[in-house]
Amino acid sequence: MAHFHLEPNIPEHQAASGNTTGKPCGHSVGETASLVPVPHSTSNKPCPEDDGAAHHRCSAPRRLLQQNTTDQGACTIFCTHGSGVYKSKIKVLADSVSAVQGAGSLLQRQALHWLCNLEKTVQSLNPRRIPVKCPVGGYSGLIFSACSMGNGTSRLYSALAKTLNSSAASQHPEYLESPDPEHLEPIDPKELLEECRAVLHSRPPRFQRDFVDLKTDCPSSHPPIRVMQWNILAQALGEGKDNFAQCPVEALKWEERKCLILEEILAYQPDILCLQEVDHYFDTFQPLLSRLGYRGTFFPKPWSPCLDVEHNNGPDGCALFFLQNRFKLVHSTNIRLTAMALKTNQVAIVQTLECKESSQQLCVAVTHLKARSGWEEFRSAQGCDLLRNLQNLTQGAKIPLIVCGDFNAEPTEDVYKNFASSSLNLSSAYKLLSPDGQSEPPYTSWKIRTSGEYRHTLDYIWYSKHSLSVRAALDLLTEEQIGASRLPSFNYPSDHLSLVCDFSFNKEPDGLS
Fold first, then answer.
1. How far apart are CA 499 and CA 154, in angstroms?
2. Which of 12, 367, 413, 416 makes an SS bond possible with 405, Cβ 3.0 to 4.6 Å?
3. Are 335 and 302 in contact (CB under 8 A)?
């Protein structure tokens, strides 16, 4: 029987020593884990803004990155099992958690909210329904039990975190439903960017990439919609599985690599952000991006390979973020893709958004298809399943659509051809960077593994060509910029390049049927 134990108090001697968990990161097998608040460092003024220099980095005290949460601190949870740390499927039921009424502290309510989000992330796994045990009266701790569903030997969750709201909370059950962005203390993106650069002061400067203006005949009265697609490389895979032969181990350290990822996002400031291989959603991206005004959704792979790596941070999956000052969520769907009538390990998130400026709707999807050669038919079947779902979710292609993803497929594969010829009338945005407007880039991923060098075009941003126009696209890194050691590197945090496009609605879209 595995246990989740929520513990609100930290002994003073532990807080003074900096050990806020009371245990090292790797618990011994059989221990009951603790969910405790993590105090952050005293606020320090960050380094001054850099005179417009694109790559300025200075050494300065860190506040937002160390805190990584709101002023109430973070919660971290560890999972162990009496007969061995297990890779398995757990489910904490939201309706069981909601049985706790009149929670007396903000910590308790937010811990419950965290568990509800945990339930959502593993809902596709469909294990046995496990009740939540909670003491009646007082708050001496909450015990949540989950049974092992297999004999796997990998860690399920080494650490997951969820932010706590910063303002005084009222005792309302909606804390168990969804986060309230009004309770989150906003952060200045410039301040966060400066702190990232302070962490990265000893690294080479970030690569310079320019937007290519793709002049169109359809000017828009509304600001363009910037969409970013990026496989950010799961930390567990980068350190434990991918075997990057030319990448120094130091370049993969999470405390610095996460700052490179954040720096890239902050540099381009997307309105919609689509990510793959996210295994630090709860402790990094959701806390920070939510305070930058984004609303996020995370859907993990059911059997993530990250779980096979010792000291992992949980499963990797897809994440979709959008700026709440530009869009309103209309509908959201998490899809576990099928192939040959079987549920697979690959997932997709599809959301219908309403643009607040124009009141027009836009459907956005993010996915990550099966990797490796020899799986071409499998990828094609997954792509067909996704297309069928998108056909329904766009109401027969009536709603404009953007699909971002690491398809793990070259343009010669069937899955690419199926998307290009589908009734959804999709076109690949990055073809527009080619001289003839018909060719994909020569690469979106370039790496050297112990098994050899790999240079492939795998990542795409598809869009409804009759209702949307591509106004600009971010150029790719050159071979010279990437360097002989390829990716990832001290300069760049992932083995995949980010793709960024500016879109606008066509004034009078040609029929999408």
1. 33
2. 367
3. no
Residue 255, pLDDT > 90, answer: yes
**What is the CA angle 191-196-197, rounded to 5?**
95
Q: Name the packing angle between helices 254-268 and 189-199 (round to 10°).
A: 140
User: d(Cα 362, Cα 407) in Å, to the nearest integer?
Assistant: 21
pLDDT value of position 333: 98
493 phi-psi bin (left φ>0, alpha ψ -120 to 50, beta other)? alpha
Q: Which two tokens stand for residue 276?
A: 């793959």
DSSP state at residue 86: -
Closest by alpha carbon to 305, among 368, 259, 228, 350?
Answer: 368
Region of 169 please: left (phi>0), alpha (psi -120 to 50) or beta.
beta
Strands 327-339 and 499-505: unpaired
- State the burial class of residue 423 (Cβ atoms within 10 Å of its Cβ: 0-12, 13-18, 19+): exposed
More confident residue, 181 or 230: 230
Question: Could you tell me which of 383, 25, 133 has the C-alpha nearest to residue 391?
Answer: 383
Q: How far is CA 163 from CA 143, 186, 206, 313, in A?
A: 20, 13, 29, 16
User: What length does the chain have?
Assistant: 513
pLDDT in tens, 57-93: 655 556 677 655 433 333 333 333 332 332 332 333 3
| Listed residue (345, 335, 276) closest to 305, CA to CA | 345
Q: Is-contact 187 64, C-beta < 8 A?
A: yes
Q: Which pair of structure tokens corresponds to residue 458?
A: 């795998």
Q: What is the pairing mode between strands 342-355 and 459-464?
A: unpaired
Closest CA to 476 of 493, 457, 462: 457
